[in-house]
Each structure stands twice: as C-alpha cells, then as structure tokens.
Amino acid sequence: MKASRPLVLCLVALSLLSGCLLRPTSPPPEVLEARFAKGLSEQMEPLNSTTEFAPEDTVYFSVKLKGNPRKGVITIRYLYQDQEITTVSLDLAQMHKEKGTLFLIGGNTFVGSTLTHERPFPPGDEYRAEVLIDGQPTGIYPFAVIAGAPVALEILGVTFARALGPNMEPIDPINEFPPQGPIYLSVELKGAPQQGTVGARYFYKQQEITSVQMDLAEWAQAHPISPQAQSVYVGFTLTPDQPFPTGTEYRAELSLNGAAAGTYAFAIAAPLTPASRPGAVSSLSEVKSAVVQIEAQGSFVHPQLGQLLNVAGRGSGFIIDPSGIAITNNHVAAGAAFLKVWVGGASEARNAKVLGVSECSDLAVIDIDGEGYPYLEWYQGPIPVGLEVYAAGFPLGDPEFTLLQGIVSKERAMGETDWASIDHSLEHTAPTNPGNSGGPLVTKEGKVVGISYANRADTNQHFAISRDEALPIIEQLRQGNDVNSIGVNGQAVNNGQGLSGIWVASVVSGSAADRAGVKAGDIILRMEGLILAIDGSMADYCDILRSHEPGDTLSIEVLRFATQEILEGQLNGRELTVKTAFERQVEEAAQGEEGRQGAPRYSGYRTVTDDTGALTVDIPNEWTDVGGGSWKIEGKVVGVGIAAARDIERFRQSWAEPGMLLGASAILAQEFDEAGILDQIDYSDECESRQRFTDYDDGLYTGQYDVYKGCGEANSTLIVLAAMPEERDFIIVLTVGLVSEADEEALKRIIDTFEVIGELPTE
To answer: pLDDT digits over 359-389, tens only?
Structure first.
C-alpha cells in the first residue's frame, strides 16, 4: 500500500513549486428554482408544471440545485395552513454515494420529492413547501388543492384498427371486424395529459356489451409521456367470449372525465369474399396469387465462401396491399444492389425498392412496381397450438410455388438466431427450406399468422415471426423508417477460440454503418464496449440497438478480416480508423500482467461535467464518487477538472481502486507542451516500468502518453495522457487507473468522449 497518491497529477513547476492539478471543491448547495408538477422524469425534472392539484392527486416537487454539490441536506417541509403534513430530508452526500452524480443535467443537479396521501387533501390555497439547506430556510413555494378542478382533455382522432402499436397508435385502420374479434380502438389526445379519465362504452343496437375506463394518471405511470409531446394515444381492446353477431349497429361511446365525447360506429361482418373486397385473398387456393419470389442481386462477402460478386440469392415474400407493398425478411433484401420480384409464379420479373428494414426482427417491407395486386390479410383472433397452418413460398430457389401443411406446435418458441433476435416465434410443423424465408404462414382460409424465417433441419423444427410480433414493426417500415438497424446484412459468428462478432455480408448505402466506414467482410467485434455474439446469436447486438434511438452515437470496434486490422469509430459519429498504438498498448499492457483481475463489464455509462460546464466526459455508472471543480496549483486556479471513482479517497490511497482524473488548463498551455507536462509526472518508483508514446491522435486532440505497468500492490496499469487541440490554446491531462478488464472498456469510453466544451480560466 503506497502512502499517498495525489488526487490528480502533482506537478513541479519551473519554480519548483508543487501542488495538485485537480482537487475538486464542492460548493454549498444553492437552489436555482423549485417547481411543482404533475409528475417527475427519471432525472427528477418536473413534468407538466403546475401549482394546482386535485384532492386525490399526488404532488410532485422538483428542486434544481446549482452545479453538482457534494454535501448538504435539503429539507422540504409540506404544510397546510400552519399544520405540518410531512417533512422530507435529502442528504446529498449519501445520495451521491448511492446514486453517483444524482441527476446532473446541463451542469446543474435535480432532486425530487413526492407527496402522497392516504385520503384526499382538503381543498384550499394555503398549502406550501418550505425548503431548507442545512437547516437554513431558502424559500417558500405555495400550491393549492382545488376540488373538482376540471382537466382539459381534447380528442384529436379516434381510429378502429386491426392492431395497436407499442404506443397505442393504430395499425391497419378498419371499421369492419370478424365475429371472433378482437376489436382495437385507438384514441389520440391533444398534448401530453397526465390526469383525467377516458371512458369507452361498447353497444350493439341498444344493448351495452361492456364499458372500460382509462385513468390517465395510472396510464402515465406505466407509459411515460414527454411534456413536449404534441399528442398521445390511449388504446382499448374488446375481445369477445364468443363470436359477435354480424351487423352494422355497433358503436363505441367515448367520454372525457365523465362527459360524453362522441359516438363512433363499427361493424361485425362475415368473412369477406373476393367479390365484397376485390383483391383480398379469401381462400387457400388463392394464396399463390399474392406470394412472391424475390431475387436480391449484388455483391456479398460470405464467412466461408468469401467474396461473391454479382450473385443472386432468392427468398420469398407476400403482398399485403394492392399497391404492391410486400413483406419479406431483412436477410433476403438488405444490402442488395437491386431486387427482382416474380408475383404468383409469373414468368416475368418486376422491380421493387426497399422501404424499410429491421435487422433484429428480420423484417423488410418492399414496394413492387405496379398496382392492383391480389393481397393477403392478417388472421384475426388468437393463434393457439393445434391451429392448422400452411407454409407458402418458393423454397430452394425453385420458381415453382409450394404449399405445405402443418399445425402450430408452440405459441412462444425461441426467437434468438445468428441472424435475428425477437422475443419469441411461432413453432410449427409445416416443412420449410432455404428460400421459404420471408414467405407467409397462412391458415386454411388464406389468412397470415406469421412470416417464415428459420428452421432446424436436424430436429425438423420450423419457425415463423408471429403476426403480433411483426405488425408494429411492419407499420413503421411501411412509413420508410428502419427499425433496430444500422444498415448491414449481418450474421453472428463465433469461432470457439475467442473471436466473435457480427459478420457483415453487405452494407446498405447511406446507412449509419456505411457512413462510419463499415465494409462487407468486416466483423463488428464490440458495440458500446460490449463483446458481441459470445453466445453465437444476435441477442446482445440487438439489445444495444433497442436501448438506443436511431440517431444515437454508438462506439464500435471492427475487425477488417481482409487486412487483419482492428478499427474503432462510431455509428453516427467519427468514422472508423485503425486502432491507435495508444489503445493497442493498453491492451498489451493489461494482457501481460499476471496479477490482472477479470471482472464483469460496467453496467453502462453516463455523462458528467465539471461545475462550470466547460469539461465533459462519460464515466461508468459504478463510479459513483464524482467531483468537478477548480484545478489549483499553490492556491492559484489554473483550470478545471473532474475526478471519478467508486471512492475517490481510496483511489488516492490504493492502486487497487480504478478511477479517472481529468484536467484542462489554458494557463498551463502557455508554460508546458505535452512532453513537458508529462516530464513533471513520475510514478516510476511505484510501478515496474514506464514507456512513453508520442503518436496520440483521436481526431480532436493530439499528444503524448505514458504507460506505467505493474503498479503497486494490485499490479495495475496507469495511463497518463497529455493532449492539445490544433490551436494549442489549452492542454488536457488525463490519468486513468486500470485494475480489471472492465476498466479497459471504461478507458476507451473516456478517450472517445472527453472534451472541452466551454471557456477555461485564463488568469
């Protein structure tokens, strides 16, 4: 155990004066504002600010503190007239210890409190919250409880549909339903209401079938609503115990806060015939007319066969709209130069364009040239085990249409494969082969229950993407939006010897992958620091995509198989470049240490800033002890900095504790260059070796760095980096202590994200 390690970097200046570059100070808490609201975000920001509540409402209170105070107790006293209702105390030191930086947004911290009650509050305007900091009053904030306060609700649209999307938006609007239902009703409300009620009463003729009431407060808890939303959907589902009688005298009567808000008619119709709905397939014998064979032509790179130039692979699909909208698999269509489509076994091919794809759901929507096509409809009702089904398509590239019979053998079967990742699939006994991919699984009436996408020849198992899994995705793809995709036709690979990832067979031009520089034949090894396809499936890759928005910046590491180079970059960020000597040296140093500990990866990362908002960096969620303040030498402020670890004090005292120390200074840049500042820092007496590298370049900053190996009792690695921008008007000093493999990933994230974004002290 070493006696003491400075909090960041202790430099000896030319005058031989020494001092710590960064010793963050924690200013006393200061309240910038406090607001009541109808709810709080996960970051404790107020949602739908208000000072008026109904007697049964929960009262939410958000306090915005200046900067990122490390200590202090925030006390909130709730009173009615002069009677105390309750008191809440928030100990910032304890909260930092438990939750890291709390909720640091825009350089300021939010904390929140919730006032609940066992019985309704009495109406009145003499309610208040008193805020105290370390026992000293800082502000009084009044609010009122109003009996019967109306909640303004406005309906923008009401739509019956075949299905509802994940946000209750309507999918495939209709007004006629089959007798067995279910009947879906989507109501679009103006704005982002988080209180009030929406009711629906269903009638056949004059007889009420059932009634449902939606409490928006409960709905908002389960479905968080952005206060900036222009509208929000709520949905109702009516499923009969027995088939509805056919007829047109059905209606739904809606109410808002108990007041009538409109009547909306729908009908129950017998199964439609081709005569009643032209173009809609209504029998098994007609299915062929709406099933297509798809040939994807282009150049691909196969894991075993290598480069395949100007080749054509074939799969199946089916038309769902007379305009030529059709469904197939992503692995059939993605990355092709162009598509040729044969409709219903026709001898002449038509062209088609891809509207949208989902790599993880293995779905693609294409638009076939022309109009007036026969089309398949979705099966309505439950899909039970034992349901008779037929696999339709063009297996093995044969132009002859096939239709093979089976039953649904499992409702919720495996969904993970080496080319897709879905929650579950339908397992069935209708035989399928390569080439059936993308074709429909239909009932004896010709209605679609699923989309063929996988089989296991060794166990004679066959799988389809279920209707309920596919419909919400298809609706988005039809609008031209890709879903859970970066633009590759990929396959999970694992050689059993430590190499795993997503093999890229082809890349969609203009996609996030293409813009980053991913090429056919690459293997995506890591995304957001996570090693991919360890289990041989797409599961981890797709979990990452599903947990981010399409435009989010994601770090990736790629093996360019043709050149055996490792490249790193970002999707929706900086392009791939060959991995630097800096990164390779860190890995080599870690692998060469016998005492190195293995460890699970960090759960995730969050962005932190210093108190002035000038310096930003991403750190592991588990590094909960964070400080950001002035960088001082001999009492003089020379810059700003951030320190982060599980325990900063332990990081100071022990080589067994990982952490990060980051400082930026415009003042020191006038006196030191990168080599000069590194020369003043020396841990050689506590580490077995020190090696300097002079080729650091991350595209934003250039510089030099020292790698210390075998440090202290933990035999850990220490990286000390000094870097400057092209203008050389400030210098950055970064120190990262590596104890486990997880810290290597943390280092890469820190290197990718540290940046000076604000003004630095100049005197």
So the answer is: 999 999 999 998 889 999 999 888 999 999 9
What are the CA-CA distances from residue 758 to residues 110, 551, 617, 705 (Å)? 21, 24, 13, 24
Catalytic residue among 96, 331, 428, 462: 331
The strand pairing partners of 30, in sequence order, are none
Chain centre to alpha carbon of residue 675? 41
Catalogue the long-range contacts made by 245-250 (C-beta closer than 8 Å, 24 or more residues apart).
245/179, 245/204, 246/179, 246/270, 247/204, 247/205, 249/204, 249/205, 250/202, 250/203, 250/204
Backbone angles phi, psi at 324, to 5 degrees: 105, 10
Distance CA 709, CA 596 (A): 11
Return all residues near 32 (Cβ < 8 A) that are at least 6 apart: 64, 65, 66, 108
Q: In 10 A of CB 672, how many CB atoms?
A: 21
Write out the two tokens for 157: 């649209």
Quick check: 315 and 438 in contact, CB under 8 A? yes
CB 232 within 8 A of CB 193: yes
CA distance 221 to 42: 11
CA 511-516-519 angle, to 5 degrees, is 80
Of these residues, 26, 358, 362, 740, which one is catalytic?
A: 362
- Is residue 331 part of the annotated active site? The answer reads yes
Among 182-191, 292-301, 690-699, the least confident range: 292-301
Residues near 351 by beta carbon (within 8 Å), at least 6 away in sequence: 338, 339, 340, 341, 368, 369
Nearest to 420 by CA among 533, 519, 499: 533
Write out the two tokens for 423. 């929650």
Maximum CA extent, the chain: 96
The amino acid at residue 126 is E
Cis check for the bond before 142: say yes or no (omega within 30 of 0). Answer: no
Q: Where are the alpha helices (DSSP H) in 121-178?
A: none
26, 282, 316, 437: the active-site residue: 437
Q: Which of 109-123, 209-223, 488-502, 653-667 has the highest mean pLDDT?
A: 653-667
| Coil vs helix vs strand at 349 | coil
Tell the residue number behind the tokens 């690695």, with chain if given: 717
The DSSP code for 729 is: -
Amino acid at 260: A
Is 437 labeled as catalytic in the residue annotation? yes
For residue 670, the SS3 value is: helix
- Give the torsion sign (CA, 296, 298, 303, 306): positive
Tell whether the model's pLDDT for residue 96 goes beyond 70. no
Contacts of residue 235, defined as CB under 8 A and 6 or more positions apart, other chains included, come to 164, 168, 184, 185, 186, 187
Q: What single letter denotes the amino acid at residue 154? A: E
Residue 74 binned pLDDT confidence (cut-offs 50, 70, 90): very high
Supply the angle between the helices 581-591 and 741-753 in degrees, to the nearest 10: 170
For residues 40 and 348, give the distance between their C-alpha atoms in angstroms, rounded to a whole number: 59
β-sheet bridge partners, residue 554: 571
Spell out the residues 6+ positions from residue 563 whose beta carbon is closer than 8 angstroms to its own.
none
Q: In b/e form, how buried is each residue of 486-499, taking b as 16+ CB within 10 angstroms?
A: bbbbbbbbbeeeee
Q: Which of 227, 148, 236 is nearest to 188 (CA)?
A: 236
CA distance 617 to 123: 48
- According to the model, what pLDDT value does residue 270 have? 66
* pTM of the predicted structure, to 2 decimals: 0.50
In this predicted structure, which of 3-12, 131-140, 226-235, 607-616 has the lowest mean pLDDT?
Answer: 3-12
Q: Is 753 exposed, middle or buried (0-12, 13-18, 19+ CB in 10 A)?
A: middle
302 is a catalytic site residue = no
